[in-house]
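hiii, so i know i said id send this last week but things got crazy w the move. better late than never?? heres the sequnce for the chain we talked about at the cafe, plus the structure i predicted for it. fair warning i was half asleep when i ran it
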Amino acid sequence: MADRTSGSGSSLSALVQRLSDTADQGDRELTLAACQQLVEHARATGQVPSAAAVRELLTLLRDRRRFDALSVLADALVRMGREEPIVLRLYAQGLIDQGLLIAASEVLLGLVRRVTDPAEHSELRGLMGRVHKQIYVDARGRPSDQARRALRHAIACYREVYEEDPQNRLWHGVNLIALAHRARCDGIAIRSLPDVQALASAIVAAVRNPPRHIIDAWDYACAAEACIALEDWDAATQWIERFIQEPSTDRFALAGALRQLTEVWRFTAETPEAGHLVVALRGALLRSRDGRLELTPAQLQHTTAALDSPGPRLERVLGTVGLQTLTWLRTGMERARAVALIRGPGGRGIGTGFLACGRDLHPGLGEELVVVTNAHLVSELQDDGGVEPEQAMITFEAQTSASAASTQTLYRPNKLLWSSPKQHLDTSLLRLEPKVQDIAPCPIAKSLPALNKSERVYIIGHPRGGEISFSLQDNELLDHEGPPAGAPSKPDRCLIHYRAPTEPGNSGSPVFNQAPDWRVIGLHHAGGEYVRRLNGRSGTYAANEAIWIQSIVKAMTVTFSS
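okay and structure toks below
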């Protein structure tokens, strides 16, 4: 992205470009660090990016869902004199998506009072509707008086904006429909609710016969939601199919549509007639270039169950590669069950591991199921910085549904079978007590993928000790030191470099190839903005790093003793 700041120095231009690049790559920590560098430079020099550059940066951060960086940058820009409505509006949006609803409301209220442009004013009132909607959604079906007031305010905001221009404010109209449905289901009286059937029919007609503009991705999502209100499930499926396949549909749009179906309509993957729409949107997030999907254990189980019995609607909405995509999704969900959350003292999540069949790592382990993780997470060596094995606890979050959380199996390492220091292979191999049953281990790849621009990798882990997350954003395989042309920087250790959105807690995650059967090629252990290039190449780049799984297998062959 070009920096359009007149009279600014090259340093500012470079920092703007760095933030743009890291945001586009999707790494949270790198993006936040680049944002802080830009803010510090602007404060020290008085050089502030131009209005055009600011708008482009903030929009990119929003679209890549880097809301923490968006809020930091917008807050600093406002204090440095950039008080344009677009800056404050995107600032409010960043606050909303971080759950800071009261703060967002205060920003919006101040902005609504002074903005005179009708289009911008409508955007602001729509965002105010979203604030009130989220307050109600967060009540989780047990609304307080405040939540009930918020629902009424949200309906009023969306209705006012929609009725000003019904042909051009479709998204406000479908929010009005969804919240009217929510009010009826929850038994909350709202005066003078619109005729939902007539409103939904009008929205579908507006998308089918657009009077004013070229149809975009959001219009398809609006039509789908209107058809849901009409209980026309075949038509809803067709519109979701078009929404998913539209080239302009990005992660921001997919996540918004999914949030609407699951939070407001309260659909799950098992909801009759509607469940396939939820599964299809989750699948689209997984397949998108800039996608990340986080699932609770119950959501993952429901999605897996739906994929096991897909039905014709789901196969259709997955597109021309329906069966291939269906198989790929089902396999990915199955691999997630073998991904472990590593917990430290007090039960806090500290990282990730994965279940492997012992014989895939060393013949002496036979059919025993073991956990592979980083030495810097679990180790007997003080220099590695990990917790000692007896302090670690391990759970397989995807194995347990929310209803069975109280009976979740808690595993403890009863032996550190093998380890390699953080400075070398950064690996620990753990035997668990009790023995793991009813979870299929992750298969191990024998070789590394060929290096080409189309090769991708997939990571499943527990970033920040939270829900299980599929990290697939900008997940290009950059380089590796493996055969046939690799030149390892250390004997008996091959590194893999790739781009994927990883965060603290992803350490120890399995890195999968893009083969349909999701085979492990590496153990994720590090990443940074200035990672030295591989194979003797000069310079650095932003990359994540894994240890090739076959380097670990080879080292175990030499040193392992059961």
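btw The first strand starts at residue 290 and ends at 295. thought thatd interest u
miss u guys!!
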